[in-house]
Amino acid sequence: MSAFGKPRVFVPVVTPFRSDLSVDTPRFVAFCRWLIGQGAGLAVFGTNSEANSMSLAERRALLDAVLASDIDRTQLLPGTGACALTEAIELTRHAVAGRCAGVLMLPPFYYQGVSDDGLFAYYSEVIQAVGSDALRVLLYHIPQFTGVPISHALIERLITAYPNTVVGIKDSSGDWANTEAMLKRFPGFAVFPASEALLGKALPLGAAGCISATANLQPHAIASLLAATTADDRAVWEAKVTALRTIVQALPMIPALKAVVAHHMQHAGWSRVRPPLTAFSAEQANALLAQLDALGFSMPPVQQVAA
User: Fold this and answer.
1) What would you report as the CA-atom Rg of the chain, rounded to the nearest whole angstrom?
2) Is the sign of the CA dihedral 195, 223, 138, 207 positive or negative?
3) In the chain, helix, strand, coil percent, each to 5?
4) What is its EC number (predicted)?
5) Are the CB atoms for 305 and 53 separated by under 8 Å?
């Protein structure tokens, strides 16, 4: 069993913006509460949260707002990776001070072709600067975005040096062979695939659950798949979550997710994205919604998530 106990789903929570593109904090916190109520944990400031379009101050303030709510802090896994080492240290220290369950850390993603030595130094500097036994780090492997892969040799080196601190990884590479190899090579290390569609193969190998963008739309269904105790139940939930995932992942993920949430929450702030991303047009949104309608997809009533 991983450091996170039984398999869990964490959500890189999408971020609503006001018309001036400032963060709509009350609406974000309300949505976080709803996700928790649906059985999911919160990987706030993930890729699909548009975290890398936010300033350090915005991320700190938004985490403070979540911490100030009635959300269980053991459900929080904020993203704290940054290009600047000093920002990564500050965000990670802030998450530890807030008693979050752990942090999800991108590698520094501007310089390409950096060595494992350089990446080891980056993670080591953060861990040592934070200097807390309470720190739990999940690495974040998403080389198609960062251009900086996290090798198995680097994982081995980090968990050897920091066995109680570096406890897992999110594998967003989309490469099942890589996920499978990590699960087999690092037993007890919390490996989270980024797609619920892989859970049927990953769970028998000891996966810790998933950290999935489309959990913004189907947190209960994914949580139900993870909790299923019979083969029949698992098959039903796996088919359900995979069908939705297949539709959404074929599109630009962030605007697609936000278009769906905006429709079901009946609030335009959910559909807004920060440049350089572009929001879906009405035609794009309607085409996606029609596909989801054909699946019988729905989200709970607006009043459950409205700020």
Assistant:
1) 18
2) negative
3) 50, 10, 35
4) 4.3.3.7
5) no
Spell out the residues 6+ positions from residue 76 whose beta carbon is closer than 8 angstroms to its own: 41, 42, 44, 66, 67, 95, 98, 100, 101
Give the model confidence (pLDDT) of 37-61 as tens digits. Answer: 999 999 999 999 999 999 999 999 9
Chain segment 160-199, per-residue pLDDT in tens = 999 999 999 999 999 999 999 999 999 999 999 999 999 9
DSSP 229: -
Beta-bridge partners for 139: 105, 169
Classify residue 135 by burial, with Cβ atoms within 10 Å: 0-12, 13-18, 19+.
buried
Measured between alpha carbons, how far is 274 from 183 in angstroms, rounded to an integer? 36
pLDDT greater than 90 at residue 2: no
Quick check: helix, strand or coil at residue 291? helix
Domain ranges (residues) in the chain: 8-233
- Distance from first CA to last CA of the chain, Å, rounded? 37
Burial class (CB in 10 A: 0-12, 13-18, 19+), 110: exposed
Distance CA 190, CA 231 (A): 23
For the segment 16-43, what is each residue's pLDDT rounded down to a tens digit?
999 999 999 999 999 999 999 999 999 9
CA–CA separation, 90 vs 278, rounded Å?
30
Q: What is the second-level CATH architecture of the domain 8-233? A: Alpha-Beta Barrel (3.20)
pLDDT band per the 50, 70, 90 thresholds, residue 4: confident
- Which CA distances in Å does 59 have to 29, 46, 156? 13, 11, 30
Strand duo 103-105 + 209-211: pairing: unpaired
